[in-house]
Amino acid sequence: MSQIEEFNEYRTRMNERIMSYDNKVIKRFFNLDTNTYMEGALDVKTKEMLGLVASMVLRCDDCIKYHLGKCFEEGVSDEQVFEVFSIANLVGGSIVIPHFRRAVEYWEELKAQQSAS
Q: What are the alphabetically sorted keywords of the record (predicted)?
């Protein structure tokens, strides 16, 4: 199983489990997240790139993978994603570099998965 499939399967399974507890605050928080990334004054592509920068600066590998997947779905190019990576590294400093490496690996796997299908 690829790291993309593993990540998406785990995320889906655990989100379903979390939602099964029927906690109103958690459901509202998840809904807020969903609605924040919908089309608005900013398009979805821009919002996902912003989410990717924030995730890299905060050093959240799961968040980075999620936003990379969304950026890929939104048609972000290699050039654009590397500008996003540049901003994240500039803002976050050298401590972001290990997350940057994993992000590049994940991005390349997204591209390879698309090529294989």
A: Oxidoreductase, Peroxidase
